[in-house]
């Protein structure tokens, strides 16, 4: 089942943690989509926060509320730099952007010269329509930017990301550490954020799928290979907000050959000039 299709049930374990299946305790309530009184529960085992079963998801995807995100373009550019640095450090060339939305990040990465693909359950790839990938295929690196908090049942949904055991899984999400009902990341107006991971939960995920974990200021890096001290130091130095902005400007000024190569590839596929 996909997250948007997840429906409310009457099972007695509805409040059990949807990641580790531990017992939960009521945390607080807030109003979602300006009409639903929704309860949130904190897992006593992994420390995550989750909404009650998100029966309202069918109301959020494809609606006007889902487009209220003025920071999306800036995040794509930051993500572009983040992927480029990590891919170079770990020798990754074939990439998949899971939850890739319009495919803008995929297009930037292909322009840079990577063999990049985009995958999204709900949004058609506009910028890279000929390069739609599947998480069941083998990739060196799978990125999942602002995706995991949308998972209605992460114990099932995360299987898609990790199923082909990529060398690196690079994700961004805001970690839960006891924030109140006023926490901006709950995003109740949009209603799509339904699960919030603690640091302990992130480590649980790494162990569950057989990965090492590096937690950065704004990202989670799951690795199938050992992370050297040099890689850790380079990541610590370069993946700071100000450094990312500078590197982003440099990358955007450098013209890659990826677009020309893709034009030639697609022309060959279609047999047109």
In short:
By secondary structure, the protein is of the alpha/beta class. It has helices spanning about 70-90, 105-110, 155-160, 200-210, 230-240, 240-255, 260-270, and strands at about 25-30, 35-45, 50, 95-100, 115-120, 140-145, 170, 195, 210-215, 220-225. Strands 5-4-6-7-10-9 form a six-stranded mixed beta sheet, sandwiched between helices. The protein has a four-stranded antiparallel beta sheet with strand order 1-2-3-8, with no helix packed on it.
Mind explaining what this structure looks like?
The chain has 7 helices and 10 strands. By secondary structure, the protein is of the alpha/beta class. It starts with 23 loop residues before the first strand and ends with a helix. The strands form 2 sheets. Strands 5-4-6-7-10-9 form a 6-stranded mixed beta sheet, sandwiched between helices. Helix 1 packs parallel to helix 2 and helix 1 crosses helix 6. Helix 3 links the parallel strand 6 and strand 7.
Query: Helix share of residues?
Result: 25-40%
Q: Helix tally?
A: 7
| Stretches with pLDDT under 50, minimum 5 residues | 1-12
Biggest sheet, strands in spatial order? 5-4-6-7-10-9
- N- to C-terminal separation? 43 Å
Order of helices and strands: EEEHEHEEHEEHEEHHH
Overall structural class, as computed from helix and strand content, comes to alpha/beta
CA gyration radius, whole angstroms: 19 Å
The geometry reads as globular
Keywords:
273 residues, alpha/beta, 6-stranded mixed sheet, globular, disordered N terminus
